[in-house]
Amino acid sequence: MRGWDFGDEIFNRSDKAPILHIPCYSQCFQLIKLTNMKYRIELSEEQMSLIAQCLEDVSRFASGQWEMENTIEAMVKGLPFEEQIKRRDEAEELLRKAKKVLLPEMQDNSSKGYNGTDFIGNTYQIYRTILHQFAKDKNWNNVYSSPALPSGSLGTIKIEAVNVS
After folding, report:
1. What 3-state class would DSSP assign to 5?
2. Which of 10, 25, 82, 124 is the most buried (most CB within 10 A)?
3. What is the pTM of this model?
């Protein structure tokens, strides 16, 4: 591998099991689906923002919007501006190639939408609810000022602001 040239290896897994059929991944996925436990997680604002950014990238990626904006920006942060742009553009071209392999029926500028599958809808629901909470807490007047649209199959998440003294 040199630079961003991953070759066909990254896109061609015909001789390997799909990722969700690898025992570790599928067993973990089954455990998640089979339990009815609820969890409470305490996060800093920065941690919650990072989760929202990651879930937004994953949700958009799964729907066919392959820019991975938050992830790529974090990866090239600190490089000279021209190098950041060059690497971002090269990565986006490789992601466009991946889209053609994984979603050959979709055009470059098309997507499945925020609720195209349960996975897309569930990840959308979580990241969008986090951003809505930030909008309420900071009195934003933007797209996140309204709650997330109904989506996915897991329902909404509950977020409570915690006062830290």
Report:
1. strand
2. 124
3. 0.76
d(CA 91, CA 111): 19
Beta strands in the chain (DSSP E): none
User: Which long-range CB contacts under 8 A does 99-103 form with residues at least 24 apart?
Assistant: 99/64, 99/66, 101/11, 101/12, 103/64
- Which residues are within 8 A (CB) of 146 and not within 5 positions of it... i.e. 6 or more apart? 132
Q: Which of 6-10, 12-16, 39-43, 160-164 has the lowest mean pLDDT?
A: 6-10
Residue 54: strand pairing partners: none
Buried (b) or exposed (e) across 40-71, using 16+ Cβ within 10 A? eeeeeeeebeeebbbbbbbbbbbbbbbbbebb
Is 38's pLDDT higher than 60?
yes
Within 10 Å of residue 148's Cβ, how many Cβ atoms? Answer: 20
Is the per-residue pLDDT at 60 higher than 80? yes
